Amino acid sequence: MLFDIVTIFPHFFDSSLKDGVVRRAIEADILKVRTVNLRDFTTDRHRTTDDRPFGGGDGMVMKPEPIYKALDVLKKEPPEARVILLSPRGKLFDQALAGELAQLQRLILICGRYEGVDERIREHCVDIELSVGDYVLSGGEIAALVVIDAVSRLIPGVLGCESSAENDSFSDGLLEFSQYTRPRVFNDWEVPEVLLSGNHAKIAKWRRKQSLGLTYEQRPELLNSARLDEKDIKYLRSLGWEES
Ligand code: SAH
Question: In this structure, which residue's CA is closest to atom 26 in ligand 1?
Fold first, then answer.
């Protein structure tokens, strides 16, 4: 999969892609991440990428021409790409969307700065406007990294063990169960006995209950769209859950 990041800060990505899962995927040629310096698509001496907003107001707005030109050049290259604009006004990025994007061959990510990007780019050149959460970042670069990281780990072959993404939080609409490792006792804090029992059926049951209980406590709204069977529903009701 290929990610092209359109940004005025290409060096922002230098260190962040050098570690962990993403780095290994890049080395294994499963993933390629390129940065495109927006200033290379300006025509003036100062390499200007922003200007004052029409109608007045604070801050600067990213000019449409450099972004348009960068996209024009990128889109002429195969494979076909989905163009994403990072923006707090966009569709909320979640695990399901990460899974959908992981099926694609190429994404172009446009990183805004200042007050954002001239609206005409979104209207005419963008396939998906994407937000990584209901808060405002100072630039789309961090949001682009969030998307790259979450999408990459869902591409087959990127994670060492395929099943580790299957159990992750959100994969079936629930939060993941709690995990423990050695030592068995630390500061008098013990690992739940059942995990040491070697009884896999019992462990699976305990983990399912944990998942359900945690989701009910922390993110009850997720339960409305989670994949639940009769047993799950019965257990949740015993905790006080009422379907809405
Ligand atoms: N004035 C804009 C915010 C601009 S923030 C507004 O209120 O909607 C500057 C840039 O940071 C945006 O163009 C976008 O690319 C990025 N950004 C900020 N918050 C984001 C979020 N939650 N998700 C994705 N991108 C975000």
Answer: 87
